[in-house]
Amino acid sequence: MTTFGITKKSFQLLDKLAANNNREWYHEHKEELREQLIDPFADILEAVSGKLKNAKRPFSGSKQTMFRLYRDVRFAKDKRPYKEHIGGLLTPSGSKKDDAAILYAHLANNGGFIAAGFYRWETKALNQLRERMIEDAKTFRTITRKISKAGYEFSEIEPLKSMPRGYAPYADHEHARFLRMRSLVVSQNLSKEAWIDGTVVKELVKLHRSTIDLMLFGLEAIGQRS
């Protein structure tokens, strides 16, 4: 198994960042953060990209698809200047702007998680996806069963309490639960060891393989299949 430079010290550094979330500490440890967290994380994204280059729909990521540590606190009650985790995407185009369908990795001091799917789509795109769930219920059923069989579950991220506008007649539809969702995301928690020993790469590849039909289903619904 290939390792990428994430070590126990990397997690200790995240703990220290959380305890000293200020500009003075950050600038004193900026190089250390780069060496122990940012660069190794980018290497992981690139390793996954290489594994997926011959996939049904390749996804790729790099340092350019990582999220910066700086927080925008202009309108936030929480004025901490830095995030206390490392996050990054893999997308069909390899661009962070291409966020219709994503594979996401999140490194935190407790290990973190990986996720795949559609996150907070605009209402127009969501409704296009909902229409396809209804029109092609059999295919969507096959997709969700495949994901379940692989051992994953859909995350309940801010689901609507009632059916979305225009979909009340489908309250008893077999996919009513998914029709109420504003994000269709499959996620898996990861241990610290998965990052340290490099098995995070294998887990991301497995998650992509298990969810790619879902992501293609959604991209086709909004006219972005090719």
From TrEMBL:
What's the protein here called? Answer: TIGR02453 family protein
Give the organism, scientific name: Bremerella alba
Organism lineage: Bacteria, Pseudomonadati, Planctomycetota, Planctomycetia, Pirellulales
- Pfam families in UniProt: DUF2461 (PF09365)
Q: Which NCBIfam families match?
A: TIGR02453 family protein (TIGR02453)
Q: Which InterPro entries match?
A: CHP02453 (IPR012808), UCP028451 (IPR015996)
